Amino acid sequence: MLTKAKVQEFLKEIEVDDLVNNLQVMGNDVYIDMTAHSPAMHEKKKLEVAMKQAFASEFGEDVVLKLKIVSPEPTEVQQNQIKGKQIPGIQNIIAVASGKGGVGKSTVAANLAVTLAKMGFKVGLLDADIYGPSVPTMLDTEGSKPLSVEVDGRNLMQPIENYGVKMLSIGYFSGANQAVVWRGPMASKALNQMIRDAHWGELDFLLIDLPPGTGDIHLSIIQEVPVTGAVIVSTPQHVALADVRKGIAMFQMESINIPVLGLIENMAYFTPEELPENKYYIFGKQGAQYLAEDLGIPVLGEIPLIQSIREAGDVGRPAAMQEGSIIEEIYKTTAQKMIESLVERNKNLPPTEAVKITTMAGCSTRK
Ligand SMILES: Nc1ncnc2c1ncn2[C@@H]1O[C@H](COP(=O)(O)OP(=O)(O)OP(=O)(O)O)[C@@H](O)[C@H]1O
Fold first, then answer.
1. How far is the CA of 256 from the centre of ligand 1 (A)?
2. Cα–chain-centroid distance for residue 296?
3. Residue 305: inside a domain
């Protein structure tokens, strides 16, 4: 017969006894309340999966584990770090990242930004892709020059605004055709200025279009800025998906610990716009789903490969703005899923890190 002592002994053996707050054994039902090592969602998920596997292999399928995992209280030091990093007025900072270049990360960031703006949110977009800033082209603001404004005695950069999105990009300062060959510290200093020395005003979301890959610049941005969560963009090919793991691992590093809100699969399939029900999985099918399941993160959206997305990017009017189009619909669903993932993330974090979602159109709210 299963006893409390037996379970206690096993918990000690698998070295989680110090995480357990409450243990009850009733017949074959084992009730365990425990505290995860860190507040990050993936840590709780990892612990849950490991506990379930360990219990099944030790006690067999008849024993039912009723597990409740809570987040640890942040330490005073952590609370102060969070407060120090907060950017007044900006509720959520979402990093849009990709393991590989050319997967459509900037296109996705631009389309998500206009979609969130159409949903009624106050949105900012920071083009941190110093190697190839594309926000000015994609949102038709090429050649614009941010003005300087005085706010509370400080001179701040005034973001450029179009389609309801406030934006800043290194492209506004360096000229579109001028190659930006900056070293890491210089680039991250410039980016930090664009985040902190800019008059963003009140924002529900500031999306940061990161450079592709996982280098020093990424680390310095995500260490300096209080990023709420990361969205990873990938295409379905194996080579691209393999790099997604590296990207996710970067956000999940212990010193960084940024929750990954989900994966967006871009160019998931080709579809002719006049026959949207015909889908051709030319780069492979369901690879992103399997990978996401394996990593315990949701797939937020599958964006098709459509000629008009490329054309819209080139003319500076993101495809998601086309009223009644399938792209508009797909981006709306993707943005909603991102928000759901964000709300879920907030449930799993201590209140100091939990962020507000203020204005909502058709989505759940949390304050
Ligand atoms: N779903 C899509 N359908 C058709 N074309 C697309 C799609 N997504 C992106 N593109 C096109 O692919 C090209 C590359 O996209 P984009 O510049 O967004 O990639 P990226 O990942 O940001 O690149 P990098 O990070 O290397 O700058 C662009 O011409 C863009 O219009």
1. 28
2. 14
3. yes
Residue 314 CA, ligand 1 centroid: distance in Å: 10
CA-wise closest residue to 194 among 106, 109, 128, 108: 128
Q: Is 367 annotated as a binding residue?
A: no
Query: Is residue 159 included in any domain, yes or no?
Result: no
145 in a labelled binding site: no
Residues with CB under 6 A from ligand 1: 98, 101-107, 129, 132, 134, 212, 266-267, 303, 305-306, 309-310, 313
**Domain check: are 211 and 289 in the same one?**
yes
CA distance 159 to 43: 37
Q: What separation in Å is there between the alpha carbon of 38 and the centre of ligand 1? A: 35
Q: Could you tell me which residues come within 8 angstroms of residue 295 by beta carbon, excluding any fewer than 6 positions away? A: 42, 245, 248, 260
User: Is residue 24 domain-shared with residue 86, that is, in the same domain?
Assistant: no
Cα 321 to ligand 1 centre (Å): 17
Using one digit for the tens of pLDDT, what is the confidence trace for 270-319? 988 788 888 999 888 888 888 888 888 999 999 999 988 989 889 999 99
Average pLDDT (196-214) is 90
For residue 155, being part of any structural domain is answered with no
Q: Per residue in 218-266, pLDDT tens?
A: 777 777 788 889 999 999 888 778 888 888 888 887 677 888 999 999 9
